[in-house]
Every structure is written in C-alpha cells, then in structure tokens.
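Thought: the user asked what histidine kinase looks like in 3D. I have the sequence; next I should run the structure tool and report back without guessing.
Action: structure_tool
Action Input:
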Amino acid sequence: FKESNPLKTINDEIFVFVTKKQKEIDELKKLELFRREFLADVSHEFKTPIFAAQGFIHTLLDGAMDDEQVRERFLRKAAKNLDSLDVLVKDLLVLSQMETGDIKMNMAPVDLLQLTFNIFGRLEHIAGSRNTSLKVKPDNLEAVWAMADQDRIEQVLLNLIENAIKYGHDNGKVIVHFSENKKSIEISVRDNGPGIPQEHLVRIFERFYRVDKSRSKDRGGTGLGLAIVKHIINAHDTKIAVMSKPDKGTTFSFKLEKASTQPLSDAHATENP
Ligand code: ADP
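Observation:
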C-alpha cells in the first residue's frame, strides 16, 4: 500500500489550524462590532427621553412654573418621557437576559385561548381608543393547549397584538387565529393595517429597528418588542414568520408543540391518587 506523506499531513494540520484561528478572529471582530453598535444604539435611545425630560424640567425651573397650566402640562410631559425610559430599561434587561441565555424556561401546558382573552382585556382601552376589534378564530374553541413558558408566551402575544392595534388603521380588525395538526398548534396574529414594505420586512426583528421612527415613538414603542419576541420564540425551539401585503395587512405566525388538555400536575393527581 501507499505510505502517507508526512509533510502533506503537517501542511494539512497547519492549514486547518490557521483557518480555525482566522474564523475565531473573525467571530471576535464581529462580536466587538456588535457590542459597539449596540452601545451606540442604546446611548442614542436613552438620550431622546432624557433630553426631553430635562428640557421640560429646566424650562419650569427657569420661570414657566408660575403658570399653573404650563406647570401641569410640562410635568406630565417630563413624566411621560421618564416612563418611556423605564420601559426601555426593562425591555433591555429582558433582551440581555435572553441574549446571554441567562433565562430559565418554565415549560408547562398553557391554554393559549385563555391567555389571548386575558390579553384582549389588558389591551381593551388602547383597542377602544382606535376603535379596533379584537377577535379569536375559529370562534367556537373552548381551549387551546400548548407546551410553553406561560409568562414569556404571554409577552409574545401581548407584543404582537399590541403592535397589530398600534400600527393598524383606526376601525381596524385584529384576529388571533389558531389551527392545529397532529403535533403542533399554529398561532397567527393578523391585522388589516397598512402592512410593512418588503424592504423593511427582513429587518423588523432587529433591535431598535423601526419602519417609521416617529410613528413608533409616538406610540410608545422602544423598537425592542419584536427582537424580544424572536428570542422568546427561538427559546421555544421554534421560529416566527411574518407576511405582509401593502394595504392588506400583516400576519405574524409561529408554531408550538401541542400539550395534553390538562396541566401536568392535574394529570399526575389523576394517575396517582
Ligand atoms: P416598537 O417598539 O417600535 O413597536 P417592535 O420591535 O415591536 O418595536 O416593532 C418594530 C417595527 O415594526 C415597528 O416600529 C413598526 O414600524 C413595525 N411593525 C411591527 N408590527 C407591525 C404591524 N403589525 N403592522 C405594521 N408595522 C409593524
């Protein structure tokens, strides 16, 4: 048989070693760039509400305080900006916990139908203010059991439904649709709003990415909602998809594993009385 060439083996090993090192260096460079961009984005996002709140407070201190109406209006505006800052910090904390994998998923059977109705209740006043109807389809469901981390999947549905209302038209329609097959449940959140232009669609899950910056800020958005949604859905070992048609609306959908109709603790109680 043919003896292997020792020089060739050494060369191959050196080649593998160098490519491996180069890959690690590229990876580190990418991480460093990501970190820098992230810091720049975060500083920028912090600056806006801080500047605004500062402005209102300094104007009051410089004399505007004497007028009772101006005082009330400016204090409310300063408070609103500080509230946005608070939401931003909370969203950033959730995002950083998700990104570092510092989060324990608490998987259990969850009734998504009940969860959706609770969320409809929480969003009633913003839906009412835009005269938007909130519906579940099909409308004859009694429960929809899936395996999920209840708090996190609640955050996903809350973000998607709230966005559908916020970015939809006045007098709009938001539908949460459930369909099931043997092993999984597909959940979709649909609106009949203006839609998201194709060129933005691929980027909307990036942190701080907004299609219409002024509109999003106007509506209290931090630009982190969909980035958080994506992380949570990925932590459930699944994916989120988005489809949008101009002037027809937007649909976000994802699948979750089906669960038995009873929470596990109850099932145990029946099995082992
Ligand atoms: P925000 O805090 O700005 O709402 P998100 O990450 O939740 O941030 O959403 C990112 C952007 O995607 C929004 O600023 C908005 O431009 C767009 N968007 C999200 N959902 C919808 C929707 N249902 N219809 C139209 N645009 C949407």
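Thought: the tool returned a structure. Summarizing for the user.
Final Answer: Structure for histidine kinase predicted. Strands lie at 107-111, 133-137, 145-149, 173-180, 184-191, 240-245, 249-257. Confidence is low (pLDDT under 50) at residues 266-273.
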